[in-house]
Design brief:
Layout (H helix, E strand, L loop, with lengths): L1 E5 L6 H10 L3 E5 L2 H9 L6 E5 L4 H10 L6 E6 L3 H10 L3 E5 L3 H11 L11 H13 L6 E4 L6 H11 L7 E5 L5 H9 L16 H4 L4 E5 L6 H13 L1 E2 L8 E2 L3 E6 L3 H6 L5 H7 L2 E4 L9 H16 L6 E2 L1 H9 L5 H15 L4 E2 L92 H15 L4 H8 L3 H13 L20
Parallel strand pairs: 1-2, 1-3, 3-4, 4-5, 6-11, 6-12, 7-8, 8-11, 13-14
Antiparallel strand pairs: 9-10
């Protein structure tokens, strides 16, 4: 972690820097915005900027955007000045950090910036063999080509190789060749001199110089234009680069790692990728297997992301049920680990209670699977499978079991309540009485949403024997909201079941 602190902060700068260094950060300091911009344009760079709230944060962030420097900015100020904090956040700061510095707070900020531990979670023999291969090549300075489908974790593997290398104490710099337009990629890689082109307001060192003595990752290299491939080849062969607008070459010492989700041999044959560059980079090849090719990793990775997102959302410990795990094991995972991560994030947010069951698992990319239907990936009993349009757009909750071994309490999928409706309501004859009654949309015509909502809430409460907590769980609303609704219905003259009244599935006579 490279931390750049900007401003004097009235003497607290030394204390903040010492705390950050104790947490493993490399700290540098400058008093002014111009000094900060010069430091970020230089090879040293930074992973996080902490800036005095008294400085012009808006101008600083606008300058970063204009020069395409992407870095998180945290504002710092003495005490808890709410107005200053609001101004900083509106200007584009990610966070406001009050001073004097609190060790735990600074540690939390540093961890939030580097929240990804970049550790690889695996237990499958196929992935373990791949890691052993990476361990063998990591100590050398050989270029490595990392291949694999999208979402398999190619950048994660690159960081793993860097950590295991002799350059682990130096910078690791990643460039996504697919995300940067061709006319900007050259400047990003090789840097430029002031005035070299429109918008070049100052000298800017490129990623090669930023990664000097360290590791440079060229992500999705196959997307690079052939013209730039020629310049890249020269940089690798001669170990020197030419900044745009400069006639003076710059010597570099960089280890190159590259990734691609395409078959580069096919790209070479089709003329889209230079053959000489391919052989220069492909000194050693590491192929990451797709997630479906390492099924033993699915449970471990799923539980890893389950813990991560449960903690991130303050939801406590959660566990996957056996049925949910079977769903995960059976899925095709065309999006690989990235798809599994997104699936577990959704599951954490959709689940009720400490267990994550099949009803919270929404599988994606189903259109790529043989079934050919994205909707089929949503379980029929999912909380989002059959939403009802109540106030605030509420959705039914997951099935609720009062105690282990008890039958699930599930609202009837098609039957709507026949009782508690207003006397003489239109369409009432379309409602079936007793158990097993059904309703059609025709039967709802002429009724208001408020009427239908009231009937649904009261009938659900009857089904749950008057148990407010169970009913609220099924309806997907808070217990407080349910109580307010019941008070309203009672005041309007509708009979509200008391705890213990009613019977599951048995409908009461209309009032």
């Amino acid at each position: 972690m490279r931390l750049l602190i900007v401003g004097t902060l009235e003497g607290y700068i030394t204390a903040a820097g010492k705390i950050a260094m104790k947490r493993g950060a490399k700290v540098s300091h400058t008093d002014s915005i111009e000094g900060a911009l010069n430091a970020l344009r230089a090879a040293a760079g930074a992973d996080l900027v902490m800036i005095d709230v008294k400085l012009d944060i808006a101008t600083f962030i606008d300058s970063l955007k204009a020069e395409r420097i992407t870095i998180p900015v945290v504002a710092c100020g003495i005490g808890t000045d709410a107005a200053a904090a609001v101004r900083a956040i509106r200007a584009g700061a990610k966070e406001y950090l009050p001073l004097p510095p609190n060790a735990e707070l600074i540690a939390a900020v540093l961890e939030a910036v580097a929240e990804e531990s970049h550790s690889i979670v695996c237990s499958d023999p196929a992935m373990i063999a791949t890691l052993r291969l990476a361990d063998q090549v990591a100590p050398s300075d050989a270029s490595v080509m990392i291949t694999g489908e999208s979402g398999t974790g190619k950048e994660l593997m690159a960081r793993y190789i860097h950590r295991k290398s002799r350059r682990s104490g130096e910078a690791f710099v990643a460039v996504n060749c697919a995300a940067i337009p061709e006319n900007l990629l050259e400047s990003e890689l090789f840097g430029h001199e002031k005035g070299a082109f429109t918008g070049a307001v100052a000298r800017r060192l490129g990623k090669f110089e930023e990664a000097n003595n360290g590791t440079l990752l060229l992500d999705e290299l196959s997307e690079m234009h052939p013209r730039l491939q020629a310049k890249l080849l020269r940089a690798i062969q001669e170990k020197e680069i030419d900044r745009i607008g400069s006639a003076q070459p710059v010597k570099i010492n960089v280890r190159i790692l590259a990734t691609s989700n395409r078959n580069l041999e096919s790209e070479v044959r089709s003329g889209n990728f230079r053959e000489d560059l391919y052989f220069r980079l492909n000194v050693f090849a590491v192929a990451i297997p797709a997630l479906r090719e390492r099924p033993a990793d699915i449970p471990m990775i799923a539980e890893h992301f389950l813990r991560k997102y449960a903690d991130a959302n303050g939801l406590g410990d959660k566990t996957l049920t056996d049925d949910a795990m079977l769903m995960l094991r059976a899925h095709h995972w065309r999006g690989n680990v990235r798809e599994l991560e997104n699936t577990m994030h959704r599951a954490v947010l959709l689940s009720r209670g400490e267990e994550v069951g099949p009803e919270a698992i929404m599988l994606t990319s189903q259109m790529l699977a043989p079934e050919g239907s994205a909707q089929a990936s949503i379980p029929a009993n999912s909380p989002v499978a059959n939403p009802f349009a109540g106030p605030g757009g509420t959705v039914p909750a997951a099935p609720y079991a009062p105690h282990p071994g008890a039958p699930l309490v599930v609202a009837p999928p098609t039957a709507l309540p026949t009782s508690y409706g207003p006397k003489g309501a239109k369409g009432g004859a379309a409602y079936g009485g007793g158990g097993g009654g059904t309703t059609t949309l025709q039967g709802l015509i002429g009724r208001t949403v408020a009427d239908v909502e009231r009937d649904l809430i009261l009938e659900t409460l009857t089904h749950c024997l008057g148990n407010r907590t169970h009913a609220a769980n099924i309806l997907g609303i808070s217990i407080r909201t349910l109580r307010n609704k019941l008070k309203q219905y009672g005041d309007e003259g509708s009979p509200v079941p008391a705890p213990g009244e009613g019977s599951g599935g048995e409908q009461r006579a209309s009032a």
